[in-house]
User: Fold Serine/threonine-protein phosphatase 4 regulatory subunit 3 from Medioppia subpectinata.
Amino acid sequence: MTDTKRRVKLYALNADRQWDDRGTGHVSSAYVDRLKGMSLLVKAESDGSLLLESKILADTAYQKQQETLIVWSEGDNYDLALSFQERAGCDEIWAKICQVQGKDPSVDITQEIAEEEDERFDDTNDTGLSASVARHVVTCRPLLGTNSLSVELPLCESDRLDEINELMVTCLPYPIKREKLAIALETESYIKKLLALFRALEEQKSVRSLHKLYDIFKNIFLLNKNPLFEVMLSDESLWDIIGVFEYDPSLPAPKRHREYLKSVSRFKEVIPLGNSELVAKIHQTYRVQYIQEVVLPTPSVFEENMLSTLSSFIFFNKVEIVSLIQEDEKFLRQLFAQLSDESTAEDKRRDLVLFLKEFCTFSQTLQPQNRENFFKALASLGILSTLEVILSMEDPTIKLASVDILTYVVEYSPSMVREYALQQENDEEQFITNIIIEQMICDSDPDLGMATQLSGIIKLLVDPENMLAATVVNKSEKTDFLNYFYKHCMHVLIAPVLASTQDDKVVQRLAQQQSGQSAQLLSIILELLAFCVEHHAYHIRNYILHRELLKRILLLIHSRHTFLVLTALRFVRKIIGLKDEFYNRHIIHCNLMAPIVERLITNNGRYNLLDSAIVELFEFVRAEEIKSLCVYIMEKFWKQLESIDYVRTFKGLKLQYEQHQDRLKDKDTSVPLLLCPPLTPSSPDRNSVLLSRRFRRDARDLEDEEEMWFNNDDDDDCDANSLSDSLNYKLEAEYDFNKKALERKNIGLSYQDIDSVKKSFELETNQNKSTLRPSTPRRAPLTTPTSQSSPSDITSSRKGLVDYDIQPDEDSDEESGDESPDSDSEHISAKRQRLSNS
Assistant:
């Protein structure tokens, strides 16, 4: 059976102030996760679709009328009504609304908007909704006629201005009252009457009345209604509106806004616009922006959102202006032609650039698809080649405006600029990226504002993160552009760093004579390099290592400008934070921690940012257990750092270093338990036994030794995967043999049996190696020792893969290699005899 109790008809107020039927359905109240609150839901009875989903807000005024009708405003200019088929359903939903808002269900208006009403609203109930709901909900006619809750405006006379202003102030806090007041102002042409009164009062110079009109029109603006703005901002009324706001009661004398707009502010057509509609729209937009930003008083915290319609008015005007200009292809071609023409006068070019900048600024109001078409149109007209010309101009106004234009282009589509730069690689000697870098370096502003802005553009261009989205179109964009940048542009970027650190007296000059502007420029460049270190692991690493760039940068640590010293330290910290052994070995080989330690010592323990930054760098080395740097710091600088005891960092580094050394010693003296008896200093074959030992190794030690092998054998063309496979194969072979030998020993086999098993195991291993193991150039073949192999051969074979740190006590490899196979057999047999006797 159909639930008729909650059967409703949904209505919405349209732009003509008439109620539109949105459908019939069933209403319910439920918590909606998306809206995060209790909401009213209406589902269509025909197909179950959702007709309404409205969150019950605590400050929304709901009205219950004629026992079966609930009315409320859903934001500005959007009123809704639910007409119930039965009273019980209306009472049930009304009780839920009152429960959410914390009101008594016996009230008819949840926000008490009728409180302190005067005679202006006496006819509300008489002309309200009773007639509108006389019929059944299915057949009812439109609700809430335009006379509902109507507002009666006082006569527009100078002696009733206080009454008019009081009415405005009373209606502003309540959405429904604001709506009805706006309707009354519009239908009675009340604004035009007030403006006529303004002209009369201005001629009479009645300043007090003009001050009251100022307050009245301020409140009309705060009604935030588009129909009222269309009247006030029309060409007929605009100048009078500006004149009203000249009489601010808080100012001792009137402002002269109209005089400024008519005389001082002038509209220039740098290129004639043939469209009169476009010209009128530009004039209107400028004046309305002037009203919003200059004429209107600064809104309070409670008023800042009450002028959204005015902002929307300006927004849509800008969209229309951009669209009209974009459609005029002849105008745009002429614009770019004059910008690129060398014969164009300087003043004319300045106006053209400022127009283009304003044009791009307006384009930010476009929707994404329209904005994409906009920048594609500019690209086809040659905006990037034009920017190459105007960026190099000496005029500061042109240069700053061109940087703003370039910022808009790069922020929207960095790939477009990268693609243009790659096209220049084979065609031109001058690159747009180098022009950007040169303008950043040559910024004459002491504050380097333009340089900072250009550095942001460079970051966007070299950021791999925004290259990923373009891989569908150009899969090689990241590789191609980074190769191009490091080949053609990086040397231009680091030129100031190299120039500041080129001679022997650089330390003294940095400490005494470096200017603040020069130091700030170097700081900007170092921030860019740090960004590259973080995002371009391969390219920047090769560049730094092959040009000793880090060594040059560390000279800046002697600068007298602390912010530059800290920037250099951040750069080093960024490198060490990568925990890249290539960088670590470079730091150790070039002794690059020396200037940092020196600066720490000269700081003399002062508690400042410099001291904290240096200590944090060393603390990172300790906390992350970077062994190579720890050993280097302790062996090179411990005497200088020993006395620093106000932090535990250096004592912790020393302890870590000693523990590392102890582990290395333990490796040299550890004794395997399998197949070897305890040794004494008097053992005759001690060296031979040491050479044949096997012991379990720490996985991290194997990684360190593998890295050491790479360091000592730079020319080896065997890749890391082959080395890792070889190492794993050998360790697994040794482990399998020892495991099998132990199993045979546990079941009572003799050493002769074990030896036979070992030979068969070695034969199987050799066969597997011949098919699985790749040959390794410049390395001894990795073979399993046979009965004819000497212990020294075993050691030599093992060292061909990785250094195991096992050294004979006194005998060299050459001496061990002179032993004959027979003596080897006797030597091994004797050793086994001793093990059996033990």
Notes: The radius of gyration is 43 Å. The first helix runs from residue 87 to 101. The mean pLDDT is 75. Residues 431-578 form one domain.
